[in-house]
Amino acid sequence: MKKSYAILAIALCFVFAMTACAPTATPTEAPAVTTTEAPTTAAPATEVPTTAAPTEVAVCLTVGATYGGPINDAGYNQAMHEAVAAIKENIPCVKLIEAENVYDEAGAKTTIENMISEGAGLIFATAYAHQNPAFELSQKYPDVIFEHVGGWMMGANFANIFGKPPDVWYTMGVAAGMMTKTNKLGFVAAFPQAWTDVFVNAYTLGAQSVNPKVEVIVAYTFAWGDSAKEADTTNSLINQDADVITMHVDSPQTVVSTAESRGAYSIGYQNLAAQQFAPKYWITGSGFTLGGKFTWLASTVIDKTWKPIFLRCGLADGCMAVAPFGAEVPQTVKDKFTQVQADLESGKIVTFAGPIKDQTGAVKIKEGEVLTDDAMSNVDWFVQGVTGSPK
Fold first, then answer.
1. What one-character-per-residue DSSP string does 80-139 give?
2. Backbone dihedral region of 117: left (phi > 0), alpha (psi from -120 to 50 degrees) or beta?
3. Nearest CA to 255 among 274, 278, 230, 287?
4. Local confidence pLDDT in tens for the 391 residues of the chain
5. How many CB atoms lie under 10 A from the CB of residue 375?
C-alpha cells in the first residue's frame, strides 16, 4: 500500500513539473474573422445600386407663366396652373417659373421681364391684363415666344390660345332654361367686356332654345376676384327671383357656395373643381383643360417649329370639359343636354348663326351669317332677353 502511494506521488510530481514548464496560455478569444467577403468588383446593374444623388435632367426649355390670381382658386387661375404643370409632367426637361397674384399691367411687365432674365424662352401670360405688357415685351425680346390666353393680339413671336367656351355656354343655357322655375337666370360677371358679352349671349340663346320665356339678368362686380362683392351680387340676383346662378369671374367658389346656401341652382365655369361647393343644387359646369395644347406648344418651341397661331379649341379637342350633373338634375335635362352637345359638335346647331338681334332689336348677325371666332373679341352687345348693360 505504501508502495502504491509512493508511485502515485511520483506521478503527480511529474505532471506538476511538466505543467510549470509549459508556456502560459492566452485567453481563447473568438478567432479573427478573415474577410472572406465578396470580391470588391462592382455589382451588376440588375442588383440594387448604392444610394446616389439623382442625375439632373438638362433643361431643354424654361417656361414662364403669370397668373392674375391665386393658383388654388378652384377657378381660372388653377386651371391655367394645371395646364402649365402638365408641360413639366409631359416634358421632364422643361423648367417652370410661375408667378401668381399678378394683378395689373405694370406688375405683369416686371414679372415677365424677370422671367426672361432667368432664361425663359416661352411665356404664358394667362390673365386679361397681361396681354398688352406681354405684347410690348415680345417686340423687345424677339427670340422669346409669347402665348397669351384668351386675347386677340398676334405678332411674329406672339400668339393667342383659348378654349371654345361659346358652344359650352350654349349647352349650359339649355340646362339652365330647363331647370328654372322662375324663368330668371342670374349671371355674375367681373367686367363688361367682349368675352363676357359673348358668354352671356351664348348662354341666353341656349336657354331660349328650350324656354323662350327666359330672362338673363347680368350684374357686375368690377373685379376678377372679390369674394365679398361676388357674394353680394349673387344675393342681389337671387333677391330678384333668379333661381339659377352662373358666373364669369376668376373663381366660381363664392358664387356657387352663396347660391347653394340660398337654395338656388348653380352652373360653374373655369374649373371642374367648383362642383364641390354645391353638393345639392349643382346643375353642371365647364372648365378649361389646356394641358395637352400647352405641352404641344412647348414642344414646338423646343424643336423650333413654333408658329404664331390664333388657336381656339373646344370639348372635342380636349381643351375643355363638362362637369358631372348634380343630384337634382332630371334625366330629361341630361338627355337634352347631351343631344344639343352632339348637335353642336356635328354642326347641326351653330351657336351664333344669324339672324340674331341685340337688346334694341337691331340685327347684329344677318341671316346666313355666323359670328366668327376672331370677331368675338369685338362684341359689345347683348341679345334680346338679357337685362343689363353690355359695356
1. HHHHHHHHHHH-TTEEEEEE----SHHHHHHHHHHHHHTT-SEEEE-SGGGHHHHHHHHH
2. alpha
3. 230
4. 433 333 333 333 333 333 333 333 333 333 333 333 333 333 333 333 444 455 678 999 999 999 999 999 999 999 999 999 999 999 999 999 999 999 999 999 999 999 999 999 999 999 999 999 999 999 999 999 999 999 999 999 999 999 999 999 999 999 999 999 999 999 999 999 999 999 999 999 999 999 999 999 999 999 999 999 999 999 999 999 999 999 999 999 999 999 999 999 999 999 999 999 999 999 999 999 999 999 999 999 999 999 999 999 999 999 999 999 999 999 999 999 999 999 999 999 999 999 999 999 999 999 999 999 889 989 999 999 999 999 9
5. 14
> What does the alpha-carbon distance between residue 210 and residue 346 come to, in Å, rounded to a whole number?
19
Burial 272-308 (b: 16+ CB within 10 A, else e): bbbbebbeebbbbbbbbbbbbbbbebbbebbeeebeb
Q: Give me the half-sphere count of Cα atoms (radius 13 Å) on the Cβ side of residue 294.
A: 33
C-alpha cell belonging to residue 230: 361676388
Structural domains in the chain, CATH included, are 61-163 (3.40.50.2300), 165-287+322-387 (3.40.50.2300)
pTM of the model: 0.82
